[in-house]
Design goal:
Layout: H1 7-14, E1 16-19, H2 26-40, E2 65-68, H3 75-81, H4 84-94, E3 99-109, E4 122-125, H5 128-131, E5 141-147, E6 158-161, E7 195-197, E8 205-209, E9 214-216, E10 225-234, E11 259-261
Antiparallel strand pairs: 1-8, 2-3, 3-10, 3-11, 4-9, 5-8, 5-10, 6-7, 6-9
Helix pairs in contact: 2-3
Length: 270
């Protein structure tokens, strides 16, 4: 697939870009689907479990399933996240000289059954809230949200607030909030709350800036929403050395945190 010429302008202006054509081949997507099912069932073909996670095998299957670093446990997932196509698309949209995966989350959002209440919404938030204690200020960080199945409006799709990455002084929000409303935010003067849904077929992705407000609603379709969040850094980034733990503890392990575009850069803001 040819990378759209509009990707860089769209990402710079809106704080996100949605690639609506498949980026990797169907075989890798299908293999990752099987890998997702295996990890959720506690089957690890690489012989190691994922990182400690909010959801673990045996937990309620009707809750939002978020599993940290699943590529540690499953070969097919590891193969998907190191796809060079993902790196190339991200580099084109951001102008990066290097793109490295530094953290991955498996996300499985079950459908609502008979209108029973479920805690599957994701509240409005920006990612920097959860990352800033591990990275130097000014680090260029973003997320690629990669879908393994077609994403429709009823799927509990990701949604972004256009231009919110440029709003100074915005509260970071709360991932776990079930309110999913803009009422919790004080918008800067003259700014409008413009939500846009990320809808696309399997094998596609959206990317968003670390300061872009995003969230998602309930899955009212008949099928689960299945995706991975690939948290990425560019050459204009560096982890805080005194906090080289938790979210950045695998940064030097290329099997877990592969560089998917360019070559390793060790200096901050090189």
């Amino acid at each position: 697939m040819q990378i759209p010429d509009t990707a860089k302008d769209s990402y710079s202006k809106n704080g996100f870009h949605i690639f609506k054509e498949p980026i990797v081949d169907k075989e890798r997507v299908q293999n990752a689907l099987v890998g997702m099912d295996n990890v959720r069932a506690g089957k690890y073909d690489l012989g190691k479990p994922p990182e400690e996670s909010p959801w673990n095998p045996g937990d309620d299957v009707n809750l939002l399933c978020k599993i940290e670093q699943p590529q540690i446990a499953d070969r097919a997932i590891a193969e998907l996240i190191r796809s060079p196509e993902i790196g190339e698309f991200v580099a084109t949209a951001t102008g990066a000289k290097m793109v490295q995966v530094w953290w991955v989350q498996l996300l499985y959002k079950p459908p609502i059954f008979k209108n029973e209440p479920r805690t599957t919404r994701v509240g409005w938030h920006h990612d920097w809230t959860y990352w800033k204690e591990f990275w130097e200020d000014g680090s260029e960080l973003l997320t690629a949200w990669f879908s393994l199945k077609d994403v429709h409006a009823e799927s509990g799709a990701m949604k972004f607030v256009a231009g919110s990455h440029l709003w100074e002084g915005m509260d970071g929000g709360d991932f776990y909030s079930q309110r999913n409303t803009s009422d919790d935010f004080n918008l800067p003067p003259g700014k409008n709350w413009n939500e846009q849904l990320a809808l696309f077929p399997a094998g596609c992705m959206s990317i968003h800036h670390k300061l872009t407000l995003h969230g998602s609603g309930e899955n009212t379709s008949s099928k689960p929403r299945r995706s991975f969040a690939l948290h990425l850094r560019t050459d204009k980034s560096a982890p805080l050395l005194r906090r080289r733990e938790n979210l950045t503890k695998y940064i030097d392990d290329m099997d877990i945190c592969p560089i998917i575009f360019g070559e390793k850069v060790d200096k901050a803001f090189a």
